[in-house]
Write a structure and sequence with these properties.
Blueprint lengths: L4 E4 L13 E5 L5 E6 L9 E5 L2 E6 L2 E5 L5
Antiparallel strand pairs: 1-3, 2-3, 4-5, 5-6
């Protein structure tokens, strides 16, 4: 899966809108980049992020936490 997005200011983290996915990435020089992920690049009805105890799934355009992860 390839996610797409747009770089946003780090201050975006201070107040997120519902169903927003932000990736924070530190490059090889230690510079931090904050990227807002485009929902259309997230596959529908399958997990795109798994962690211990569950996963996020895009269902009907919404990001839903599912525990246990069905995938």
């Amino acid at each position: 899966m390839t996610l797409t997005g747009v770089e946003v200011p780090a201050e975006t983290l201070l107040k997120l809108q519902p169903n927003t996915v932000i990736a924070v990435i530190s490059d090889d020089q230690g510079e931090i980049r904050t990227v807002k992920i485009d929902h259309d690049s997230i596959a529908k009805d399958e997990s795109f992020l798994r962690v211990a105890g569950g996963c996020f799934v895009r269902i009907n355009g919404q990001l839903v936490w599912v525990d246990p992860c069905p995938y």
